[in-house]
């Protein structure tokens, strides 16, 4: 870091172990990412936040080159594990690591892009035996079984239904390991 990290404990006397833990976590971030120019960590005692029911709040502000910043400022108010100062510190730095990873990917131009699931049409169905075949856009037939269909949808599946699927190689060739009926969960 270009400047020394600022670490504040509000509403409490800082004990040596939590302060050491913050330094260890900052050192780990610096070793792993190495592009942090400044850091500020504020640990707030539970007494300052009467709504949080005795939970510690840890806020982290990291500055990166090019004016970028990473902020971790929200503590899960429903998570009673934040009543333990050590857990609260680890959890805040876990979220900071995740945000730093995302930021580094963006800086390097390596943002994840998810390929859309392929679409198929159910062309054969044996409800009694619990399997069927779907046809891909390129004309191939792919086997699937009742357990592959999400949300217990096999019993309502009909010929001609359009589905999203995930293909994998089975013992006898291509098969769909996951089948999701189009229209479920707001899809198409």
Number of strands: 9
Helix content: 10-25%
Count of helix runs: 2
Please tell me the overall pLDDT.
83
Tell me the β content: 25-35%
Going by helix content, strand content and strand pairing, the class is alpha+beta
Low-confidence stretches: none
Q: Characterize the quaternary organization of these chains.
A: single chain
Question: What is the strand and helix layout of this fold?
Answer:
Blueprint: E1 6-10, H1 16-33, E2 38-44, E3 57-63, E4 69-72, H2 85-108, E5 119-126, E6 131-136, E7 141-145, E8 162-170, E9 173-181
Parallel strand pairs: 1-2
Antiparallel strand pairs: 2-3, 3-4, 5-6, 5-8, 6-7, 8-9
Helix pairs in contact: 1-2
Question: How would you describe this structure to a colleague?
Answer:
The protein has 188 residues and is an alpha+beta fold. 22% of the residues lie in helices and 32% in strands. The strands form two sheets. The chain has a five-stranded antiparallel β-sheet with strand order 7-6-5-8-9, with no helix packed on it. A four-stranded mixed β-sheet has the order 1-2-3-4, covered by helices on one side. β1, α1 and β2 form a beta-alpha-beta unit. The longest helix is centred in the middle third of the chain and has 24 residues, at 85-108. It starts with 5 loop residues before the first strand and ends in a 7-residue tail after the last strand. The model has no long low-confidence stretch (mean pLDDT 83).
Summarize the structure.
This protein is an alpha+beta fold. It has helices spanning 16-33, 85-108; strands at residues 6-10, 38-44, 57-63, 69-72, 119-126, 131-136, 141-145, 162-170, 173-181.
């Amino acid at each position: 870091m270009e400047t020394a990290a600022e670490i504040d404990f509000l509403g409490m006397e800082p004990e040596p172990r939590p302060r050491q833990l913050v330094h260890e976590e900052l050192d780990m971030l610096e070793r792993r990412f190495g592009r942090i120019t400044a850091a500020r960590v504020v640990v707030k005692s539970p007494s300052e936040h009467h709504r949080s029911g005795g939970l510690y709040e840890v806020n982290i502000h990291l500055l990166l080159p090019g004016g970028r910043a990473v902020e971790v400022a929200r503590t899960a108010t429903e998570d009673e594990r934040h009543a333990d100062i050590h857990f609260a510190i680890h959890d805040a730095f876990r979220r900071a690591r995740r945000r730093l990873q995302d930021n580094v990917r963006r800086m390097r131009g390596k943002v994840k892009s998810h390929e859309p699931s392929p679409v198929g049409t159910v062309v054969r169905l044996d409800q009694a035996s619990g399997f069927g075949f779907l046809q891909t856009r390129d004309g191939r037939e792919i086997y699937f079984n009742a357990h592959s269909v999400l949300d217990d949808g096999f019993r309502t599946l009909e010929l001609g239904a359009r589905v999203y699927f995930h293909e994998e190689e089975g013992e006898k060739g291509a098969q769909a390991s996951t089948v999701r009926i189009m229209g479920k969960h707001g899809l198409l």
